Structures
1.
Amino acid sequence: MNFKWFGPIALLAALVIGDQIRINRPAHKYRLSVDVETPDGRKSASGVVAVYPDRSYTRRGQTRTVGDAIFVDLGQGKNLVALLAHVDNNLVLDDVNYVALRAYAAAAGQRVSFNEMSRLTGVVPVKDALIPVLVTFADPAKPGTARRIAPDDAEAVFGSGYRIQGISAEVVPNGYWPVDFGGALGKPVTRGIQAKLPWLGDAGNSAAAALRAAGLPGVDGMDAREAFTRK
C-alpha cells in the first residue's frame, strides 16, 4: 500500500471537518424559561435554542435561530405558548436571534458583544420589548382557538390567580457540532412543540390561521410555522 498520500489526505480531511464545525456550530445557545403563577402553584417550562450567524463564504445569509416555541402546561386545560416571534407594528421573526444578547446587555447596563455570548454565565430577566409573543389555545388541537396573552395581564384571559411571574434567559454550553449531545458536549436544542400542537405538521396554512386567530398583525407573506418551530 502506498502511504505517501496519507498525510496530505488526512490534513485535507481535518481541514474540511474543522471548517464544517466552524460553519455549523452555533454562535451561542440559550435557555428561555417561562414561569407562571396559577391558583395551583407555579408552572414552568423552558427550551434551549441555538443562534447561528452567517459564516458562509458568500456572506449572503443572515443570523438565524433554531429551536421550538415553549409550551407551558398550566393545568385545568389551560396553556401558554411563548412564540419565536415579537411584534413591532407587524409580526417580527428575526428579533428572537437577539433576545439573550439584549437581555444580558440590559442586565449589565452596557453593550455585550455577540462574539462573547457563548462565554457568559448566569440567568438574566427578559423584560418589556424582549418578551416574545405569548398566546394560548383553548384547544391545542385547533389552531383557530388561539388568543394572545398580554405579559402583564394574564388574568384577562385565564382568570383570577394567573400571572406571568417571570421570563428569563441563560446561556448554556454550546458544544461542538455535530456532537452536542448534552452535558460537557453542549446542550441540545429542545424539540417537542409539534407533539403539543399536532397541526404544525400539516402541509396547509394552520400556523397562519393560529396567528391570525390570536390577532397578530402582518402574518401574510411569511412562513408562519417559523413562529413555532425552526430547523
Note: Helices lie at 6-24, 99-108, 155-158, 193-196, 206-213.
2.
Amino acid sequence: MTNTDKLSQTIKLKDGRKLGYIDLGNKDAKPLFHFHGFPSSRLEATLLSEKDIDKLNVRLIGIDRPGMGLSDFKKNRTLLDWPDDVVELADALGIDKFTVEGISGGGPYAVACAYKIPERLHSCGIISGLAPRDLEIEKSIRLFAVIRIFPLLFKLMMWFQARGTLDFEKAEKNMKKALKKMPEADRVILNDPTTFSLFIKASAESFRQDSKGAYHEGKIYAKSWGFNLEDISPNLRVYIWHGEADVNVPVAMGRGMCEKIPKCICKFYPNEGHYSTIFNYFEDITKTLTS
C-alpha cells in the first residue's frame, strides 16, 4: 500500500507500520538514501535538492524515522532496527544496491546500515555525525548524561520544542536567536531566506504527530549502539566529513569514529560548521558517495 504524493509518500511495512519518505530526482539515477538530523524529517531532503540533484545524476530519498513526520511510532525501537526499515523501503522501490548518508543525528543510522547491511550498500557517508557514547568524548558525555539521568527533563524539552513549532512565526524568531550563537559559516547558510524557511519546515515536520518520536530518539543516542565500530566491514567504503568549527557536534566525534571504523576515509574542514559542511560540499560528497 503506497501513498504517492511527491512530498508525502508512504509505504506499509511488514509489521503494519507506515513509513514516510520523499523521492526526488531522476528515478533512473543512482539512489542515495538521506537520513535526516535531529530533530528533522524527510523534508530535509528538499534543502539538498536545491543543489541541483539532476545535474549530479542522483535519486535522493529522504526517510522519516519512526514517530517523526509521516512514520508511525515504534515502541522500544533500537538503532539496529533502522536498517530493516531501509531495506523494506528499498525493496518496495525496486532498488537492489544503494548509498546511505546521515547528517548529525542521522549519522548513527547510516553507521548502523554500514554495520548491518553492507551487502546492500555501495558506500556510507557520515556528515557532522553524532558518535556513540562509548567514545567518551567530553561534550557528548554531558549531553547523553542529561538524557539518561534526567529523562523527564529531556522529555519536557522535546515537548516544549514540539509546541514551539506549531507557531511558525515563533519558530522563526527562536531560530534567528539561535543563529546568533552559530559559527559564521552556519549563519551564512541559514541566513538565506529560502534555506531558512525550508529548514524551519523540515524541523517542524519532525513533530507532526507529537514529541514522542524525538524523545525516544534522544534515548537511543544516549544508549550503546549495540555493535562496535571496529566490526564494520572493511570492504565497504565509509566516509566522514566534519567541520572543525562545529559547535553542535564536536569534531572530536568525527575524529574518534574515523579512528575506529576500518579503512574509513575522512575529511575535516577548519572553517566549516555543523550545517555549512553538507551545504558547501554537497556536490563533492554526493559525487564521492555515488562514484
Note: The mean pLDDT is 91.
3.
Amino acid sequence: MSNATQTDIGAVVSLWRYPVKSMMGEEQSTAQLSNHGLVGDRAYALVDSSDGKVATAKNPRKWPNLFAFQAALVEPLGSDAPLPPVRITLPDGTLVSSEKSDSNQALSKALKRQVTLAATQHGQVTGVQSSGPASWKANSEEYWPDIDGLNYRDTVTEFALPTGTFFDCATVHLLTTATLSLLQDFYPQGRFEVQRFRPNIVVDPGVGEKGFAENAWIGQTLAIGDEVHLNITGPCGRCVMTTLTQGDLPKDSGVLRTVVQHNQGNVGVYAAVVRGGTIRRGDRVKVVA
C-alpha cells in the first residue's frame, strides 16, 4: 500500500479499550492493534454459571448494573505479551483482582448471580469449560426495548459470539465527533458523548464538521498513523445499551430513538485489522485508494 493514494480525513482524538465486556473501560494515549483488535480490549468477560451465556449490558433486565463496574488492566500490554490481570472496581468501591482466588465469589455477590471471570487472548479462551480453548464459543442475549416510534419488540433474543472472542461482532469500532455533533443537533436534550457509544477509536474530521462521516468509509481501507490499516466492514447498529445510565450519563431512550430516526439505527462503523501496529492520539487518519 506504500504507493497508494491517501486522502486525509481527520485525526485520532481518543482511544478506548474495555478490558471486561460490558464494564466501563479505560482511555489510552497509545494503543497496540493486532489481528484481534486493540490489545486488551474485551480480554475478559463474565460467564453466567447457570446457563453458560456471556454477561452483557445488552440485556439490562438480567444484568442491570454492569456499567457500574469499572475495569482496568494492571500493567501495559504488548501484542505478544501474556494477558495481565484485570482490576475491577465494584459499585461500592471495592477492588477485585483476577489474580485473587476469591474473585469469582466477590463478583457473584456484587451481581447477585453466580458468574465466572473468563479470559481470551489470541483467540483462545481460558477460565471456562470447553472441548478445547480455541474452539470455545458462547451465546449472549439482547433485550429489544419497546420505545415509542421504534419497531422493537420488548423481548429478549439470543446471539452467538464469534468463536474464541468476547466481541459481539467486529473487533474494532470507530466513531467520529462529526456524528456526535449532528445527533446532538437533532436531539439537544440528549447527551451524545463518546462514552455512551463505547468506540475504540474516535476520529475528529475537522473543526465544525457535522454529519455521518463514517458512512462514506464503508468498503474503504483506512491508514492510521504510520503502521495500522483497517478495512471498514459495515455500520455499527445500536441497541438498548446506548440508553442506559453510564457514570453521570442519565438513562435516556431518546438517544436510541434519535439514532433510528436519522441514521437507520447506526452510530459509527466496524472494522477488521489488515495490518496491526501502534496508534497514538493525534495520528492522522487517511483513506487509502
Note: The chain has a mean pLDDT of 91.
4.
Amino acid sequence: MTALLDVHRISKRFGGLMALNEVTFKVGTDEVIGLIGPNGAGKTTCFNVVSGNTSPTSGRISFDGQNIVGLKPSRIVRMGLSRTYQATSVFPDSTVLENVMRGAFTRSEDSLFGSIIGSPASGTARNKERAACMEILEQVGIAHVHDHLAGSLPYGYQRRLGVAIAFASRPKLIMMDEPAAGLNPEESQAMGALIRAMHESERASVLIVEHDMRLVMDICHRIIVLDHGELIAAGSPDEIRNNPKVIEAYLGTELVT
C-alpha cells in the first residue's frame, strides 16, 4: 500500500496526561479509514496533531512523502490535507456559496494582486472557481440554497455545507471529525452515503472520526481503534466488529452486529 499519510509512533503529553502513546497507522491513496474509540480515547487529539493544530511530543508524521510536523495548518491544507470539525464551522453571515469559495481560496488560481486590480485573468479565475464551487454544492445536495445565509440553514444542511467547504480545497486527504454529530439516524445514513459518494467522485482519501458505528462500518475500508491513547486494533470492519479488545473497550454496547 502506498501511504498518503504515515503516522509513526506519535505521542502527545499534556502535563501528566499521556493523550497519545506511540500511535502508528497509515492511510493509503483512495481509502476511507475510520478512527474510533470510547470517549477520551485520544481521537480528537490525534486529529489535532496530524492537522498541525498542536505539535506531537514525539514521533513522525509524513503526508504525501513530506514531513509535516511543525508546519502551520494553513500550509498543511495547501499540501492537500483538509479537515472538518465536530461543531459546524461556517461563516453564518456569508452565503452558502461564499462559504464554499472561502474553502477553495487556498487552492485558487487567482492572485491577490490580480484580485485587487480586477484583472481579466482574475475575473476568469474567479468565474472558474465559482462554477467549481457550485458543482460541489450540487454534489452535496444544497445548490438550491447557494444564495442563502449559512446561518439560516437547517442543521443538517450546515453539516453538508461543512463537507462542501472541506472538499472545495480539492484535498488529497480529508479528515472528518464526527460529521454525523447531532443528526438523526436517517440523516446520519444519508451523510454516510454522501461521504462515500464524494470520496469516489473526488478521488480523495478520507479519515473519519465518528461515534455512529453503523456509518463507520458501512463506508470504511479499514478501521483503527484507540483506547486511552493507545492503538488497540486495526483491520477490516468485520475484524474490528469481532475483536475481543474492541468489544471490551466499548463494553459491547456500541458496535454494530
Note: The longest strand covers residues 3-14.
